[in-house]
Amino acid sequence: MNSKLILYLSPVAVWLLWLLWPTVRGRRIGRPRLTVGLSLLVLVYFLAVVGTGIFWVAAQELPVFDWHYVAGYILVLLTLTHVILHWHTVTMFLRREAPLTLVEPGRVRFRRVIRVAAWSVLAVAAGTVVFFLGARAGSVRVIYSGAQASAVAMKPVAGVLVPPAILEEGARSMPLARFYHEGSSYPARVRLPGLTIKARPEVYNTFPGDVIRLPTFQDPDTAQVFSLCEAWRAGRMSADTAAISMEEIAEMLYCAAGITKTISLGTRTFDLRAAPSAGALYPINVYVVVWHVRGLEPGIYYYHPKDASLIRVREDDSALWNLFSASGNPGAWGQPEMAVVLTGTFSRTAFKYAERAYRYVCMDAGHVAGNLALAASAHGWRVPLIARFDDQAVNSVLGLDSSVEAALLLMPVTRGTDQVIEPRFARDASTAAGATFVNLIHGGTSLRRAGAEGEYKARPAVAVPSQPGDVVLPPPATGQGLVAAIRQRRSVREHTASPITAAELSSLCLAADGERAGVAPSEPLLADTAPLSLYVVVRDVTGMDAGVYRYLPATHALRMIRPGDLSQSCMQACLQQEFCGTADAVFVKTVRWDELFIPDGDRGYRYAHLRAGVVGEGLYLQGSSLGIGACGVGAFGDPDVAEVLGLDLDAEVPLYVTAMGR
User: Which residues contact 423 (CB under 8 A, 6 or more apart)?
Assistant: First the structure.
């Protein structure tokens, strides 16, 4: 029997034994014994409900305010009222039933030592509650001195151009990115500033401008998902010089954020989109900045998924140039026809997921970006992902209130590249003030153009050499085209007993993080600034031993890290979510702290989660194309997942888990 079930039923068992004990001695069960015991038992269970609701359920990403809690709190109040009204009866009964050594003569009251012990227990319980409530309101102090940063950070790291900010909490000091990560981990290791959102935000933005309906498009016979991933990473482009058509825009935006299914639950309907989102909350907004598109005037447009339309935010023939001027990696822009800007409305996700929401918003942006990049590659367009930019300047171009919505990714749509000197960036400390996690981590990782150029150098590619025992993966399995895979993609949480094949695992790895032999990867900028590692926990793959493997992109091979079936450990690490234990393979994306800070300090945390979303979306799409179910998991016990993989959390941390199976 499940140990937790035994734990939860044990108070009932104890009460039943206590209730039936008089029958062993030949006595009847008195009504007071029944009612008093039942009252105390109800009190115990409702205190457990409150305790788990505050310190466990809410921490596992269920809404902090829910009808479940309302009913629970009302019942607790009623139970307490019942006990208080019968307190005299309760105390009389307990004194009468207590051993003589615990009560004074005549059973008038309990002995002094018992009373002191009881009040001490109550005082400790009250103090514990106050401690936990106070811990939620903790504060931190931020230091922005580069000299102090290099002195306090884990160790000096070569190539860091923007020193990390250092946060202090009591005697502890650490870089902002690590502070936020540990504060949003399960369980939290430091205290984050509080967050309160009283009303659920709207899922769509609204603008008063003209509405332009996008044309319908025929589902193209697109290439296989992992082939498009390869073409995008290699920077392959069509020689066609024609401007982007409205049909191409319609297809690209549909693949990025279009509605692929509508479901009804009672009187409510929910629109499911092309890219997955934590909790189906869809915090990512898609803006199109147009310069040369057939049928559209230059300007800024908002893509409205509900009716597949563009809403003109404003006419502006200089907007694209202003974005270019504010961005890093200008060589990737070439001569763009337009650019897509992904922004995040943080409160849509924070409404449910509180402090951990920033992780999810960035990964959701990576999901959307991955779809858009592959859809553009199918038409010969190149779409680099540029996350290195002047935050205030980009938000200003779009007219965003950065306390509500902020830019996350720039995606120029181009068929050419230029060689332009990389601009220098510095931390924009002015945006880091505030009490909530959005200002703490997003504002604290904002950059601004610093004027000088030429300091940034791309991270040199370091391939892990092969060694005996590496499992070289076979040629990849084929599957459906991109648009078909996007239309069918859903998060799947139920698996059959059928294994996946080694060829299917091969194509999944390629779609997620592959480098084909002889193909120089040129995916800018995230691959350069956020070098993630990909681990695979194999349970049931044809021809492969169960165990933990690390994927080696340069040789397209898997290296055994830890042998054995660890599926149950995966399930435990993912907060008892059963599908993580029945999946054929569980993929885990990780990042090393020392690599995360190159070159932009704490902003690397943003890069890493954006990149994790792109990798995760590759798994989603390739799985869908092969008929393999995938489900992304952002809620997991950080130290538990690290233990499964054998990671040292002080050096390398898990970011994103994807469970996959038939």
Answer: 328, 330, 449, 450, 452, 453, 456
Residue 33 lies in a domain: yes
Nearest to 347 by CA among 401, 269, 389: 401
pTM for this predicted structure: 0.79
pLDDT digits (tens, 9 = 90+) for 94-145: 777 778 777 787 777 778 888 788 888 878 877 766 665 554 444 455 544 4
- Return the SS3 of 469: coil
How is residue 118 written in tokens?
Answer: 């009881």
Residues 340 and 443 in one domain: no
DSSP per residue, 138-187: ---EEE--HHHHHHHSSS--TT-SSPPPEEEETTEEEEHHHHHHHHTSSS
Residue 510 pLDDT exceeds 50 = yes
Q: Give the angle subtended at the CA of 653 by the CAs of 163 and 155, to the nearest 5°.
A: 35
Q: How far apart are CA 106 and CA 115, in angstroms?
A: 16
Three-point CA angle 454, 458, 462, nearest 5°: 155
Residues contacting residue 145 through CB under 8 Å, at least 6 positions apart: 166
Element (H, E) at 6: helix 3-24
Q: How far apart are CA 440 and CA 430, in angstroms?
A: 12
First to last CA, the chain: 28
Domain span at 169: 136-196+421-455
**Rounded CA separation 83/41 (Å):** 11
Residues 374 and 475 in one domain: no
Are 385 and 479 contained in the same domain? no
216 within domain boundaries: yes
Q: Residue 507 CB: number of other CB atoms within 10 A?
A: 28
